[in-house]
Write a structure and sequence with these properties.
The structure is a single chain. This protein has 283 residues and is an alpha+beta fold. It has 10 helices and 7 strands. The protein has a 5-stranded antiparallel beta sheet with strand order 2-1-5-7-6, with no helix packed on it. The protein has a two-stranded antiparallel ribbon with strand order 3-4. The longest helix is centred in the C-terminal third of the chain and has 26 residues. The mean pLDDT is 91.
Length: 283
């Protein structure tokens, strides 16, 4: 019996979140996929660095510094906006093996680390950020498939061509009434049918990566590529976050924090590019 099924595409998957075990300890596909995203993203950023006449070892050196801080930031962001649960389960804050990280937290902390790192190395932060943006968006595109194997971070009910069915007992998130009212029976099991938001975001990031490459010849100042990333990722994330059922909300409101951050990213990106252009024209 498949545990993931795309009925309109006639695709079936039977995925175990555990890839293998080492001395009895499970190694999860989620970690393998995230690591793959980091490695390939670093490789791409290193390649771009060479094209920009920057020592590619600087990218690798930065990643070695940043990776722990990024993980802490991703976890802290998730815990901060889900503190209603963690305040009564403090020990669970450190249990990241059960999930609960947010990419925006990782990005915010990584920017701070990059500011400190470039100052220490006497590098142009904006040029460094431009180079890192390529690797970041590629890593995000790959990393989203970790949500796929975990059967998590999906959207509400849909019957679109990309509709994804997951065995109800394996879905990791609280299920909305809309999802539960459209339960499907197939292969002798009960399935929920939802938006594969991991797929939407991955595709959006691939398109964004292509856009960043296409924009290179039109940039007039350092920083424009990174600022364009903020705009592009913000637009996609705002739309996709609205489909998800596991939104981190601001307090007791129904406002998704990631949508707020996405809007701020878009605004900052637009203002930043306008300023970059004005300064470039003056020079």
């Amino acid at each position: 019996m498949p545990n993931i099924y795309f009925p309109h595409l006639n695709l079936y998957f039977n995925i175990n979140s555990i890839a293998f075990k080492v001395f009895g300890l499970p190694v999860y596909w989620y970690g393998i996929i995230l690591t793959t995203g980091i490695v390939l993203g670093t490789a791409l950023a290193s390649y771009i660095a060479k094209k920009e006449n920057l020592d590619s070892d600087i990218i690798i050196d930065f990643i070695l510094y940043d990776i722990i801080f990024a993980l802490i930031g991703a976890r802290a962001y998730y815990v901060a906006f889900n503190f209603g649960y963690y305040k009564d389960n403090l020990i669970e804050i450190f249990n990241i093996r059960q999930g609960g990280i947010a990419i925006y937290g990782a990005v915010i902390i990584s920017v701070i680390v990059a500011v400190v790192y470039t100052r220490k190395k006497k590098l142009n932060f904006w040029k460094f950020a431009d180079i890192a943006a390529y690797g970041l968006v590629l890593g995000q595109a790959i990393g989203r498939y970790g949500n796929f194997v975990n059967k998590e971070a999906f959207g509400d009910y849909t019957n679109s061509i990309f509709a994804m069915r997951i065995l109800k007992q394996e879905a990791k998130l609280p299920l909305s009434e809309n999802i539960l009212s459209h339960l499907q029976t197939a292969f002798g099991g009960e399935y929920i049918q939802v938006h594969p938001t991991f797929f939407y975001e991955s595709c959006w990031n691939i398109v964004l990566l292509a856009l960043l490459f296409a924009y290179r010849k039109y940039r007039k100042a350092d920083g424009e590529i990174f600022l364009l990333y903020l705009i592009g990722y913000g637009v996609g994330r705002f739309w996709i976050e609205g489909l998800r059922t596991d939104q981190l909300l601001i307090g007791t409101t129904h406002i998704a924090i990631s949508q707020v951050v996405a809007i701020l990213s878009i605004i900052l990106g637009i203002i930043g590019i306008i300023m970059c252009r004005k300064l470039a024209n003056k020079e």
